[in-house]
Design a protein that fits this description.
There is one protein chain. By secondary structure, the chain is an alpha/beta fold. α15 crosses α16. It is built from 18 helices and nine strands. The strands form three sheets. It has a four-stranded mixed beta sheet with strand order 1-5-7-6. Strands 2-3-4 form a three-stranded antiparallel beta sheet.
Length: about 425
């Protein structure tokens, strides 16, 4: 049996800064809807200018988690940005591409202009492509904004580096710093609980219990992606770094190479963490959630825009708003019958792609749509459990919750 890598489990902003930036700006994020609406309103113009310069692809913040290199876990957010700023722009781009492609050689060839990104993606083995699809990337969609964003970065790495730092710094100052001050203790408690679980050496089902999207096969000496089956030899990994996360819905993880053995960054989503926690955290059975030792989880009903989340995480007002539009109801009706890609949804309803994208944003925000992998395609489906739970959530909202005032911020048209 190969030597097992070292492991550690700690709370840190090392990845959370980047995962939170993705969560705030991605239409695919479903957790913390009130926080995301408020946070978007708080972002300054410098952030939006930087995002536009980068191509408007929120997934680039996931890749940016590799940009600081092997930064210490006790690095502050501003120290992480300083590391990105001080690194050569080509090294920043290479690190991001290596995290995406899981192939440092391909990443370097793309970074120096010896290979185009589309050709690099075409050269990836099918298991890696399936893994990327499961983590909310779109390797089979040549029109996905991320690919043009990375193309811009590759064409002018120095400009890409400046925009990356500027956007993250604006997000850090206005949104993330106060957020992290409120989350740090809860994530530290979650790390302690998870560390105890990891320390039991029951690795066979650990990936499933932490919701990582990977599994550890000690007998074969590999770390295996659940979707697609992509394998990484444990002998290639020197450190398994587990980190609790409030935002890692895509189940994003990557390996950062340093010499012969790399560090596997493994942020695991804990539902009981974050600005709008939900039941179902990683706490031990029969014990309070790790996110709330000695305290009750904060209720999303305290949001200042009058929303209230049910136990399944759906916002009743958002659900009614989403389904109250005739086009979105027709889309939901089709997706309830069978899963299908967005292009087929557009064809059946005779809608343009931008129109479908616009309406899907509202269905996703309400927690009504889920994505399913089917080979290289991404299928959309209606979440039956969200609809089935709607009646009970509505009753609680109308008869048991505190009265709320209409939210003025919702005057925009849907």
């Amino acid at each position: 049996m190969p030597a097992w890598p070292r492991w550690d489990c700690r709370a840190s902003p090392r990845l959370e800064l980047f995962l939170a930036a993705w969560s705030l700006t991605s239409d695919r994020a479903q957790r913390h809807p009130a926080w995301r609406r408020q946070g978007r309103r708080a972002l300054p113009g410098t952030y939006w200018a930087a995002e536009a310069a980068l191509g408007g692809a929120p997934e680039i913040w996931l890749l940016a988690a590799a940009a600081p290199g092997l930064a210490p876990l006790d690095s502050t957010p501003i120290e992480l940005l300083n590391r990105i700023e001080r690194r050569p722009a080509g090294a920043v781009l290479t690190a991001m591409l290596a995290a995406l492609l899981a192939d440092p050689v391909l990443a370097r060839r793309v970074a120096v202009g010896g290979l185009t990104l589309p050709r690099a993606l075409a050269a990836l083995p099918r298991p890696r492509l399936l893994a990327l699809s499961s983590m909310k990337f779109e390797p089979s969609n040549p029109d996905a904004p991320l690919w043009s964003a990375l193309g811009r970065f590759a064409a002018d790495p120095e400009a890409g580096q400046r925009a990356l730092v500027a956007g993250l710094d604006a997000f850090r100052e206005t949104v993330f710093e106060p957020l992290w001050r409120s989350l740090a203790d809860e994530e530290a408690a979650a790390a302690t609980v998870a560390g105890n679980r990891i320390g039991r050496a029951d690795w066979a089902g650990l990936g499933h219990r932490l919701g990582l999207g990977i599994e550890f096969d000690a007998k074969a000496g590999v770390l295996r992606q659940v979707t697609g089956g992509a394998r990484t030899e444990l002998a290639q990994i020197g450190q398994l770094q587990f980190l609790p996360s409030s935002f890692n819905e895509p189940r994003w993880w990557f390996i950062e190479q340093e010499g012969e053995r790399g560090t596997a960054w493994l942020p695991f989503l804990d539902l009981a963490l974050g600005p709008e926690p939900q039941p179902g955290g990683i706490g031990e059975p029969g014990l309070p959630s790790a996110a709330a030792p000695g305290r009750s989880p904060r209720s999303a009903a305290s949001a200042d825009d009058g929303t209230a989340a049910g136990p399944e995480g759906g916002d009743v007002a958002l659900v009614f708003r989403a389904l109250g539009d005739a086009t979105r109801f027709a889309m939901a009706n089709l997706l309830a019958r069978r899963a299908m890609p967005a292009v087929e949804l557009a064809r059946q309803l005779r809608l343009s792609k931008p129109t479908v994208t616009h309406h899907l944003h509202f269905l996703r925000e309400a927690g009504l749509v889920e994505e399913q992998g089917d080979g290289g395609r991404r299928l959309l489906a209606l979440k039956r459990e969200a609809i089935e739970a709607l009646s009970s959530r509505t009753l609680r909202r109308l008869f048991e919750a505190e009265p709320v005032s209409p939210a003025r911020s919702r005057r925009r048209r849907g």
